Amino acid sequence: MSGPTDTAAETRPHAELWDEVTSWLDANWDPDLTVDAWWQAVADAGWTAPHLPVEHGGRGLGRRAQVVVRAAFASFGALRPPGGLGLLMAAPTILAQGTPEQSARLVPPVLEGRVNWCQLFSEPGAGSDLAGLTTRGTRDGDRWVINGQKVWSSMAMQSDYGMLLARTDLDVPKHHGISWFAFPLDQPGVTIRPLREMTGHAVFNEVFLDDAVCDDRDLIGGAGNGWAVTQTTLHFERTGIGAGGAHAGFPEPGPKGGMLGRRAGDAALDEPPNEKLTLGYDDVAALAVEHGRTGDARIRQELARLYTYSEVGRWNALRGRAEAQRGGGQSVASTGKLQQTRIVKLAARLGTELVGAHGLLAGADGPEGGVVAEAMVFSPASSIYGGTDEIQRNIAAERALGLPRDLRPS
User: Are residues 391 and 338 in contact, defined by beta-carbon separation less than 8 angstroms?
Assistant: First the structure.
């Protein structure tokens, strides 16, 4: 049975693009280049983000082109283009909300893999109620002085820049006094501490800001307009991590990950980062075959349910991208995020059931190198990261269905 993420099925309608990428790789792939030099060539050719306009470093292709291009790179054996939150959220936000100067200065390093970005949104007292943030930004000439604390910042230890939200005006309603900064992390006054999760990893971090500074030229969208800029960022985040999103398994950019100076051919052999924190339909179907459970009527029903969720999620993601091009799609992105949560949890539960109790063993002692245990322990996070399930349901109910808002203390 072919899965919803089957590469051939995804790329068949894009055979011409596949051939174009392969021809380019035939002429340009050199495994002896450094990763830095290879990614520069890839960016110059517009393959890092082929869905972006040509004038912004892309090739002016459809949103799905990014998936086809990266699959073609992997099939060819070449190191794929860089990824990270800069590509997923920061660059498209800056292109949508920033000035031409900001776009020209901040986006190319993302496409070339020279910098890594993290998200500095959530705070200890402002997670789901993001507009309640208390981190302060105070104007001081041509710069801003930042004080506060952020938490649940993915990959902050490996990042060079942060998408920072700070309150820059206390005299207006809370949604109107927020600003969005392209914030440099490598400076005095920034302390980053990793947070160890129950998975054993430390993807998330807390970040302390004590009289840190940010140039006014790195204020994106204007002072006090940060909430509108934030909605743009959140849309790209939810579209990317929602069902059908294409963000997973990209090589990590920036100097701190140790990639840039490596031989590109060696880096191409690496296991894609974070690719197996979750299971997909194909993974679970393979486990059913391996453990002789394909004749079990209930297991078959659950596999059909997972396949259906995955396909509907993929279609929803395509719809979301189409609506985004018309200036909408926020509620579609929230629905996609909810669908992804459902997929992640069902796949983890079904995978654990298929392999049995020993599937809870982590690492080399567990089935498939502990992948099943990893997916099960990680799966609860899907209801939290990128906006909680409750928040996504509110967005879908209020913005898509037009239902009345709940009474709120404010």
Answer: no
What was the pLDDT predicted at 273?
55
Distance CA 98, CA 251 (A): 26
Residue 255 sits at φ, ψ, to 5 deg, of -70, -25
Other CB atoms within a 10 A radius of the CB of residue 37 amount to 13
Beta bridge partners of 147: 136
47/232 Cα distance (integer angstroms): 23
pLDDT band, very low/low/confident/very high, at 34 (cuts 50, 70, 90): very high
306 or 340, which is more confident? Answer: 306
pLDDT tens across 99-108, in order?
A: 999 999 999 9
Which DSSP letter does residue 370 get?
G
* Amino acid code (one letter) for 169: D
Q: What is the pLDDT of residue 133?
A: 94
Helix (H) or strand (E) holding 241: helix 226-241
Output the six-digit token pair for 119. 């998200």
Q: Rg of the chain over CA atoms, in angstroms?
A: 21
* Residue with the two structure tokens 């393979």: 286
Q: Is 66 left (phi over 0), alpha (psi -120 to 50) or beta?
A: alpha
pLDDT at residue 337 in the model: 80
Give which of 400, 387, 408, 306 is closest to 353, Cα–Cα: 306
Distance CA 158, CA 322 (A): 33
- Report CA-CA distances (Å) from 170 to 53, 108, 125, 138: 38, 35, 17, 11
Evaluate whether 246 touches 240 at the Cβ level (below 8 Å).
yes
How far is residue 233 from each of residues 88, 164, 182, 237, 303, measured CA to CA in Å? Answer: 9, 11, 12, 6, 34
pTM above 0.85, yes or no: no
Q: Which residue has the tokens 């974070």?
A: 274
Q: Catalytic residue at 237? A: yes
Burial of 149: CB neighbours in 10 Å, binned 0-12, 13-18, 19+: middle
DSSP conformational letter for 134:
-
Candidates 112, 123, 237, 374; catalytic one: 237
Nearest CA to 45 out of 109, 111, 96, 113 is that of 111
- CA 371/CA 286 separation, integer angstroms: 13
